[in-house]
C-alpha cells in the first residue's frame, strides 16, 4: 500500500515528506495505521549522526499510538481494529532475557532491529524500489508501519491515542526509571537532571512515590514552572553557581540525595548525577543516551564508598505485560499527559517539531496523522 511518511534520507538532513510503499505484514507481523506519535530527543539524536546504530535512509519515530490495519500469518495476540502502542523494547516471553524476570530488555529480535530490519532480515518500506530501513523496530513517522507482533502492546480502545502515544517512550521511561529501576521509597530525596519529557516524567514518578524532596536541575529555566506543578520542590540552574552542581546539591541535602536521574545524555552531567548522591547508599540512574564514542568517568572511590551507578531503558517496563496497566492508570486519573503536549501538528511539519525541541521551546510535540 501507499503511505505518507517522513523519510530521513541522510544524517543531519531535514526529513522529507514522501509517499512510500509499505508491504503487507509477513508471518508474525502486524501493519498498523498510526493515529499519533510523539517526537522524542532520541529521534533527533539518531538524525544527528551521534547514534552508532543510525542507518539511512530510514523512517524515524518510536513514540506512537495506532490501530491494527492488517495481520500476518500466525498472529494471534492482536486483531484488526485493536488499539496498540508500538514497542521498541519488545516482549517475546521466551528468550533468556524475558525468562530471567530480571530485565525488560527482550533480545529476541534485537540484532535485526538494530540493523533497521524486520526479524527475517528484510524491510517493509521502499520508495521507487529503493529499500528504506525501519528505526527502533517502530518507524512511527509513517501513516502505516509494520511491526513484529511481539513489539505491540494492546491497550484500552477508550484511551486517546493522541495522548497515550507518549507512553510509548517518554512518560513510561521517566516514571518507570523511578518506580522500577530505582524503586524510590516514601520520604527519599531525589535529584533529576534535565526537565524534558523524560525528566518531567521522572518528577511525576518521584511525586507518586512520595519523595520528600524532588530537586529539578536544568539550564533552561522555562521548564521550571511545569516541574514545580508536577511536584518538584526545588528548581536549580547550574549556571547560577560558581561551583560544581553536585557540590551545591550535597550541601542542600545534608550529604547528598538518595537517588538521582540523568535525563539529558551528557556524560559530564552523568558524573555530577552520581557524585550528588549520598555516601554509603545513593543511587544514580542513567537514562540519557550519549553519542558514539563518549564515555563516563568518576573516581572509583565514589563507588567504593557506596554510591551505585545504574541505567534504565524504557523505565524497565515490560511492554506487553505492563504497559497496558500504565494506560489504565492514566485513564483512572493517576497522572496527566496533556501537560506534556506543548505542540500538535501534522506530519508535514515534523521538522518544526525538531526545531522546537532544539530551541528548548517544547516538551513534547505530538504529530497527528
Ligand atoms: P529533551 O531535549 O526534551 O530534554 C532535555 C532537557 O535537558 C532540556 O530541558 C534541556 O534544557 C536540558 N539540558 C540540556 N543540557 C543540560 C545541562 N548541561 N544541564 C542541565 N540540563 C540540561 O529530551 P528528552 O526527550 O526528555 O530526552 C532526554 C534524554 O533521554 C535524551 O538523551 C534521550 O535520548 C534519552 N532517552 C532515553 C530513554 C531510555 O529508555 N533510556 C528513553 C527516552 C529518551
Ligand atoms: N542505539 C544507541 C543507543 C540508543 C538507546 O540507548 N536507546 C534506548 C532507548 S532511547 C528511547 O528514546 C534503549 O532502550 N536502549 C536499549 C537498546 O537495546 O537499544 C547506541 O548507542 O547504540
Ligand atoms: Zn524515546
Ligand atoms: Zn524476549
UniProtKB/TrEMBL annotation:
The keyword NAD applies. Its cofactor is Zn(2+). GO terms for molecular function: alcohol dehydrogenase (NAD+) activity; S-(hydroxymethyl)glutathione dehydrogenase [NAD(P)+] activity; zinc ion binding. InterPro entries: ADH-like_C, ADH-like_N, ADH_3, ADH_Zn_CS, ER, GroES-like_sf, NAD(P)-bd_dom_sf. GO terms for cellular component: cytosol. Its EC number is 1.1.1.284. GO terms for biological process: formaldehyde catabolic process. Keywords: Metal-binding, NAD, Oxidoreductase, Zinc. It catalyses: a primary alcohol + NAD(+) = an aldehyde + NADH + H(+); a secondary alcohol + NAD(+) = a ketone + NADH + H(+); S-nitrosoglutathione + NADH + H(+) = S-(hydroxysulfenamide)glutathione + NAD(+); S-(hydroxymethyl)glutathione + NADP(+) = S-formylglutathione + NADPH + H(+). It is an enzyme of class 1 (oxidoreductase). Transmembrane segments: none annotated. The keyword NAD applies. Residues 12-367 form the Enoyl reductase (ER) domain. Has high formaldehyde dehydrogenase activity in the presence of glutathione and catalyzes the oxidation of normal alcohols in a reaction that is not GSH-dependent. In addition, hemithiolacetals other than those formed from GSH, including omega-thiol fatty acids, also are substrates. Also acts as a S-nitroso-glutathione reductase by catalyzing the NADH-dependent reduction of S-nitrosoglutathione. Belongs to the zinc-containing alcohol dehydrogenase family. Class-III subfamily. This is S-(hydroxymethyl)glutathione dehydrogenase. The lineage of its organism: Bacteria, Pseudomonadati, Pseudomonadota, Gammaproteobacteria, Alteromonadales.
